[in-house]
Amino acid sequence: MSAGRLLSLLLLLQSRGRMPARVIADELGVSVRTAYRDLARLQAAGVPVYAEAGRGGGYRLLDGYRTRLTGMSEGEARALFFAGLPGPAADLGLAEEVTAARLKLLAALPTGLREEAARTAAVFHLDAPGWYREPERTPYLHLLVDAVLTRRAVDVRYRRWHAPQEVDRRLRPYGLVLKSGIWYLVAEGKSRIATYRVAQVLDATPSDERFDRPQGFDLGAYWASYLDDFRARRYTGTATVRLSPRGRRRLPDNVPPEVVRAVDATATTVGDDGWIEATVPTESTDHACGELLRLGADVVVVAPAELRRAMAATVGVLARAYGLH
What we know:
Elements: H1 3-16, H2 21-28, H3 32-44, E1 49-52, E2 58-61, H4 74-79, H5 86-91, H6 95-108, H7 111-123, H8 141-150, E3 152-159, E4 166-179, E5 182-188, E6 193-197, E7 201-210, H9 219-234, E8 237-243, H10 245-254, H11 257-266, E9 268-269, E10 276-282, H12 285-293, E11 299-303, H13 305-321
Antiparallel strand pairs: 1-2, 3-4, 3-7, 4-5, 5-6, 8-10, 8-11, 9-10
């Protein structure tokens, strides 16, 4: 029996309220039989756990019962200060709440762990957005946060990448995701769940419509699936390129990781000067041309012919612009 698992069970009941034994077992990664045994052990230890029979029943703590935050490990105390990033919390309008919650959690820790958590806070600062990019303006983020929490549909005007660029949509927000400093809204639109870049929301108005998220919807699982699908749709073609030793070293700073991995997986040596030939994935001719030109003379496109012509045409324009032809 794990004392840590019993504490997790206690905190789970305290935070979630009534829970069926099957759900408890899934959350703790144990069998239903083990979940029943752990519930019995809590009861034997004097914790007021009650079983409610019937549809919608389950196990819950006596109303008003709370436990102090005890049993926290040193590592968990350190992790306490990573639970709420200050930047995203401020974006969501929760900066004061996160600070207050952190202070309350800190006050509940034993002295030794409180000092460890404070030391961690003094030596780590997390800054989510990437370099070389101004933070996006998201004037409707707070409204969308409220819509997610209250399960209220919103009417938005949204700017997308293809025509017609500006469209009106009624969205039922299921959650928000922060990716590399950019906020995305996961919401049900006309007939399916889709992803919307919050900075592309031009206008938003709460509606009177209330909704329920689909039973079993998991925001983390949806986002992982969305990323897999995005990568599959992103690259629609391939190109054969030759790279100098310097060009290969410069790859990680100029192209996405998928291209770097493709070079590493397919590289073959050509000649005695260290140049290699490899097959890389491409999105489109225009995009691949712009991406590969960052490497200058350290890359040569072998195929396809369309991409070779695009590279040559761009280099020709540059040469004329500098008076070389």
